[in-house]
Structure prediction request, 527 residues.
Amino acid sequence: MRRPPAAPWVLTLALAAAAPAVARAQDAVPQPARVAGGLLQGLIAPGGVREFRGIPFAAPPVGPLRWRPPQPAAPWSGVRDATSFGPRCMQLPIFSDMVFRSDGMSEDCLYLNVWAPPAAGRPRPVLLYFFGGGYLAGDGSEYRYDGASLARRGIVVVTANYRLGAFGFLALAGLGAESPHHAAGDYGLLDQVAALQWVRRNISAFGGDPRHITIGGESAGSVSVCALMASPLSRDLIAGAIGESGGLFPPIATVALDSAERLGAAFVRGLGDTTVAALRALPADSLLQATRTAAFGTFPVTVDGDFLPASPAEIFAAGRQARVPLLVGWNSEEQPWQAVLGTRAPTPDNWEAALRSLFGDRAGEALAELPGTDTAQVIASATVLAGARFTAFSTWKWAELQGRTGEPVYRYLYVRPRPAPIVPGPTPPPYGAVHSAEIEYALGNLATNRVYPWTAQDDSVSAAMEGYFAAFVRTGDPNAGALPAWPAADAGKTEQIMMLDARPHAEAAPNEGAFRFLDTVYNGPGR
Prediction:
C-alpha cells in the first residue's frame, strides 16, 4: 500500500531527530559499564544505541524473601553478560497482545534493561518506564516498550520488572506482623522503588543524569507512577511524571490494610497450611495456578503504612505528593460502549435506563452531560462513560489534583485508531483509540508490531507523540521544535487538552462537564 505524504512539520521533526540506522552486528559491543554490582557487557542496537539487558536491581525474591521488601542484589565477579533479557515475573497468559523477549518466567525476575544514546558527553535525562497489565501480567522486555528509539533522541531509557499478582500484592496479617512497619502487600510497588533507587545510584554509568529521572507508564504502569508520586519512599527521587491511562483515585482505589488482609486470608484458605512459612515453601507454580480462580481485586494496592501511609487521594488533596511536571492523558475508547449497555441496543430508552441504574436519582444530571437522543449519540456517550469508569476519570482526577500545586500539567486525549489488523479478528473494529493503543506510537515502536499495516499517517502520529514525550523528559515541557504548541492545563478555568491524531492540536477539553459530574459521584461535592 502506498503511504500518503507526511505533514511538513513531521518531516522537519524527523530530519532533526533521526540518527543513522545501522544493522546490529553480533560482534559490535559497547564498552562495559561499571555499576554497583560489577561490570556489564551489553550490545549495540540499531542507530548505535547501547543496550544492556537483564540487569539485577534486587536479590531474587524467592524462599524466605518471598513477600518481603526487595533486598540488594549480590555483586558478581568478572564481566556479567547483559545481552539477554531476564525472566519475566510469575503470571498467567492473560493478554494476547503481550509479546515477550524475556528468558522464560521465574519468581527470580527483578531485572531491568537500559538503552543509552551512542555518545557519552553531558549527562542525559532518564525515563524509567513501567509496563501495564493490571498488576497481573506484563514484562519490561515487551517489544512495545523497547527504549532504542527514544534513546536515539538523547534519552537514557530504563524498563523494570516488578512482582505481580499474589507474588507482588498479597497481604496477610502474618506478613504484617513480621514487618517493622507492620506493613503487608505492595511488594510489587516496593520493587519499583528499588528500581528507581538503583537508577539513581547507577545510571551515570550509562551517561544518565541521576538528578533528572522522569517516571512513566501505561495502565497499571500509569497507576504505579501516580502511586510513586504519592509515596514518601519515592516522591523526592523524580523530576517529572508521565501517566498513560490510569491514576490511583476512585474508581481505581486503594484498599485499607485490614481489608486487604481479609482478601489475602480468603485466598490462602484453600492452599492447605496457611502459616507464612508454609506459604513461602509452596512451589511458585503452585501458587500461580491457585490464582486462576481468584476474583479480580484479590491482590489490591494497599494503604500499607509504609509505601502508602494514606491513600493517594488524601496525599494529593493535602499537596504532599511529588511536586513535579506531569504529562498525562487517556484514549478515546478506553472501553467500548457495551461495557455500560451490555447486550442492550444503544437506544435512547436503554441509555436512560442504564443511567438510572448507575446513578439513581442523579440520572438526569448524568443525561445532561452524557446525552443520548439517537443511536450515534448514545454510542458516543456510552463510550465516554465506559472509558471514564475504567481509567479515564482517575487520570482526569490525577491531572486536576496535580494542577492545584502550581506545577505544569499537560493533558492529552489520544484519538488515533489503529488501522484494521492485517488478519481480521472476530470482533468489529473499535469505535476509537482503544486502551494501550498509544504505546507503540509514544515510544516509537510501530515497526515492532506486525499485526497492523501502519501507514505514513501512523508514522506521523508516532513522530509527534514521541517528540512530545522526549521533550517532556528533557525539560518538563512537551513543546519542542516544529511540533504544534501544547498548552499547560489551566486548572479551574477553560481546560485545554491536546488532541493527539494525524494533526495534533489543542482545544477545549471535551466531556469536561461529564468528568466534573463524576467527580461529585466518586468524591463528593467540593472535592
Residues 1-27 have pLDDT under 50 and may be disordered. The longest strand covers residues 208-218. The longest helix spans residues 375-403.
